[in-house]
Structure formats: structure tokens, C-alpha cells
Amino acid sequence: MKKVVSLLAVLGFLTFGIANVSFAANDQKTDKAATTEQVADSVAAPAAAQAELTEDPDDAVNHGLHYTLKEKFIQGGAVWMTPVLICLILGLAFVIERIFYLNLSTVNSKKLLTKIEDALQNGGLEKAKEICRDTKGPLAAVFYQGLDRYDEGLESVEKSVVSYGGVQMAKLETNLTWISLFIALSPSLGFLGTVIGMVQAFDDIERAGDISPTIVAGGMKVALLTTVFGLISAMILQVFYNYLLTKVDAIVNDMEDATISFMDILVKNK
């Protein structure tokens, strides 16, 4: 009997010891898990902050003007937005061509007249014609036509200058009609897209069988975007068109004044 009691006591002691060991192991595992979670949280917090810092510039870019225009262009539909964009691109191409041409056509008329007068007095008619040939621009071309008929008399020179001056003025206004066409065409295409978009919005209402604010607002927004882009395109081209008209008027006025001075020089050196 004593042996049985002592055996039970030993088994109880072993059982209690194993339980304490397992509890201690569980506590150690729990502490390690808590420590691991704390380390993960400490690592994840800077990463999350870094991610927020990284996303903020993207959000700023995505909500910029370029992104907004691209998004609205897609919402307006490629069928009607593309013609408006083509009108803007072609109009700007003609604008750039005219700006280069008019800048090359602008010369210092007073300096040119002084060179021609000195050439007539010192080098003769051929020297003056050579100066006109070497000078770019419509004014030098007009003067050359006048000098080419210098031997025929001042009346013939005047007629030649007036006639060829009209030709050069027409060249200055080349392609301006195309720019004015695109100015008128851009908003017209925008209005056409708006009208067709409104028709499609009413078709959506008819199919839905109910006037839903979502259907009406979505269709009207898409329809009005074409008008917005058409007006923007027309306003951009209109600004450049007025600038070109001002440039042409300035060159023409300078040509007229310089032609009068040119005839005075020819009369003085006749």
C-alpha cells in the first residue's frame, strides 16, 4: 500500500512539473509572438507612412490639369472630341507657319532705303538691285520690281510697285482663311456633339422608362463636354488669329510708307 501511495506521489509530482513546463513554454511563445507583432508594427508603420508619402505626389499629378483634360476628353467620347482636337492641331499648324513667314517678312525699312539710296548714288542701278536681291522679305521684292523698270520712267515704276505690292500683301494673308475656318468649325462641331448627346440622353430615358437624375446628368455632362472643348479650341485659335492680323497690318503699313519714301528717292536720283 505504501508503494502505491509513493508511486502516485511521484506521478503527481511529474504531472505537475510537466504542466509547469508546458505553461512556461506557452508563456514564452506568447511573449515571442507579442514581441514579433510589435516589431512588425514598428516596421509596418514607417512603410505605411512612406506609402502615403509616395501616393500623395501621384494623387497630385493625377488631379493636375493634364490629367483632368485627358479624363474629360475621354468622357466626352472620341467620336466628337477627335474632330475638335484635329481642328485645333491643324489651326495651330497654320498659325506656326504664318508666324515664321511674317517674322521673316519683317525688315528694317529705313535701313533698306538708306542702302538703296547710297547704292544709287555710288554704285548705280545694278548695285541697288543687288541689294534688293540679297534682302529677304516682300518689301525688297517690291523695290526690286520698281528698280527693274527704272529706265522706263517713274510712272512705270509706280505702277509696278503698286501692282506687285498688292501681290505681296496677298501672300502675307495666305492661310489666314484656313485659321478662320477652324475657328468657326471647332465650336460648331462642339455644338453638334452636344445636340447628339442630348438626343442620346433622351433615348436612355426612354429605354429606362423613368426620368432618373443619374441618367439625365450623365448624358448631359458628356454632351456638354464637346461644347466646352470646342469653345476652348476656338478661343485659342482666335487669339493667334488676331495677333497674325495685327502683324500683317503692321507689315502692310510699313510697306506703304516705305514705298512712298522709295519713290521720293527715285525722283531725287533721276
Characterization of this structure:
- The protein has 270 residues and is an all-alpha fold.
- The chain has 9 helices and no strands.
- The protein has 2 domains: 1-63; 69-268, no CATH class.
- Helix 3 (78-105) packs parallel to helix 9, helix 4 (109-122) runs antiparallel to helix 5 and helix 5 runs antiparallel to helix 6 (138-148).
- It is rod-shaped and about 90 Å long.
- The model is unreliable at 1-61 (pLDDT under 50).
Short description:
The protein is mainly alpha-helical and 270 residues long. 90% of the residues lie in helices and 0% in strands.
Topology:
Layout: H1 2-62, H2 65-76, H3 78-105, H4 109-122, H5 125-134, H6 138-148, H7 154-172, H8 176-208, H9 213-268
Overall pLDDT confidence: 75
Give the overall shape: rod-shaped
- Radius of gyration of CA atoms, rounded to a whole number: 43 Å
The amount of helix comes to over 70%
Helix and strand content put the structural class at: mainly alpha
User: How many strands in all?
Assistant: 0
Low-confidence stretches: 1-61
Q: Give the tally of structural domains.
A: 2
Count of discrete alpha- or pi-helical segments spanning 4 or more residues: 9
Note the gap between the termini: 158 Å
Multimerization state: single chain
> SSE string, helix = H, strand = E?
HHHHHHHHH
The percentage of residues in β strands lies in under 5%
Report on the biggest sheet. none
For this entry, give a set of tags.
single chain; 270 residues; mainly alpha; 90% helix; disordered N terminus
